[in-house]
User: What shape does this take?
Amino acid sequence: MEDSPVEILSASTPKPRIGIDGGDDNKNWRRRVNGVEVSVPIVCGSIAFFRGKKAKEYRTHNWTVYVRGATNEDLGVVIRKVIFHLHPSFKSPTRVVDSPPFTLSECGWGEFKIDITIFFHADACERKLELSHLLKLNPEIYSGPQSPNVPVVTESYNEIVFPDPFECFLSRVNNHPAVHVSKLPEGLNLPPPGAFLLLSLLNHLLLLVHDFHCNVAGDADDESYYKMKKGDTKDYPLSHWFLKFSDADELFKLTATRQKVQADIAKLKRQLVMVDAQPE
Amino acid sequence: MGGTDAKDILGLPKTPLSLTQEKKSRPQKESHRKPDGISREVYALTGGVAPLMPSIDVTHLKRRPPPDEKVAWQWLPVKSSARNDDLQLFHWVRVVNDVPPSGDYSFAKYNKSVDVLKYTDDEYENHLTDPVWSKEETDQLFEYCERFDLRFTVIADRFPLSRTVEELKDRYYSVTRSLLRARAQSPSDLANHPLMKEPYDMTRDRERKRALSMVLSQSRHQEKKDAEILAEAKRITEMRLAARRAAEPDVPANENIGSVSPSSNSQLPATAVAPSTLTMADYASTLASLRMLHVYLRTYGLEQMVQAASSAVGLRTIKRVEQTLQDLGVNLKPKVPTKTVCDEHLELRKEILTLLNLQKQLQYKESEGSSHREGAYASMPDTPKDRVFASEPFSFGAERPIKKEQKRKGPGRQSDTPSPAHKRPRKLKASDL
Assistant: This one.
């Protein structure tokens, strides 16, 4: 009997090798490493506090929207800037955050979809990435009047994937805690993260200096002072509200379900064989 | 009355009052009278509303002949231009005011005849001689053509020498064409004549008839196979186009596509039905397009791969896969989409597709076996896609696939064990499932 025509084979991954990026001049730093994947686990979310007694008609909640590393590491190694597109009712609704931690705090009354555009460093990718987050101010299930001490936290886990990354990018981020690099091929000689790192570091320093100038004059609240110090969100003021994401449960559920489905498939195949054996 | 008092206490409407209320509203509604000329039933059909545009002028419906006309029916002889003999026929004629109707017999215009050309002996000598056909035969053919209005099957039956229909046609049309060409004053006259524009080709006619008879005599099985192969071919060309489009701008991706499509090409002639290789190329082209983006979100990547997996199936199957996932307690979109989770999720979806397809195959094979072939014709689908829809009436729906699997455990095991013991395997009954 011919093989069941419905068996779908899984796609095999291509063999890793260094490929030449078509169209660019063959400078070393623009060479891509094929078969390697750089992924950055991120969490995109919002935390909203009810203002309680201080609440006014149009300013009922203080909320913060952010893009953070899933393990609260510094995303500045990969992300250059993040633009949060707020509802047009906000003043200058296009908010640019050009240094980590990529957070934005505001005060408002309404829930809306925030479009987020992420820009990467030049050695990572020249294209921007779009995602969106629905800002939630009120809890899903009503459980009495909102307390100003308990926020509404909405977070979603995702991963930014860089397939076939540039050599220079790979060498720069390899072994950085915010970044996960897939298995490198044998005998791959990455150039030391030399000249380019210096450039990016300089860039970073310039931005920090700029921030310092802007913020030290005005009210140095927790956040802007914090920005000067470091880009990770481990000690971020709201970090204790952050959710922890683990794929263990989901993975367990998936593998168990797959086993069950595979067993059912085997059973059906046996039955099919039996039916075929019957005379018509 | 006690009844009304009780109702008063309970606060229920007193029935006599409600009745009068209803009576009041009803006559209000049915107070419009139906218009004249339409029967009551027809009026009710249209929902009690007159049609906006009366299709027939209402005044025509019950029209009576104007009273000043005198109408009588008379038995009169008929003269028809269609008849060329002396037979005298009679029929009833509606005579108005003693004036019989004028004009030819109304059906005479339907007596069409073919313009069969007549040639002289000279013309025959000059243009129409043929090694295979003698003059007598040709004359006879033309006489028959005139008599039987070019009904070649009839002519073929009556022709004294046994000639096939195609041969007769060929001779008639070639003679007529030569005659037309010979007689034409100028070539432009001829150009528009249908016989000149589309000449009769005997071999093509034979081929056409043979092909038709082949199609007619095809068995159901053959028909299904042909339809399947055509569907596969269509899918393959579409997938190849997609792969080509995805591979165009990026050079490294091209090499990957290049390695996949020759393999799918070589596998095609081997198996008539090979969706596995098609989906392979689907995945490859999706991966290539993802790679071309240079950066993408894991959830987006999963979405694209899921779409690639579902590209070869219909919407109903996709919904069934999602329903199965829900029934099994799996999130349709993973909550923590890491690489491993996404890979597992995709593999699970593929496996569920396989499972559903196998279920359908099993149903189909069982329905084929249990009902006679003739009876099963009505429900037999043509293409693999249709197979999905045709099996809906069976109870194997997506509602509770798990439960059905569990039910099958019992009889499945039972039928497994006796088979080695018995000489003939026990026939699977529909009641087993």
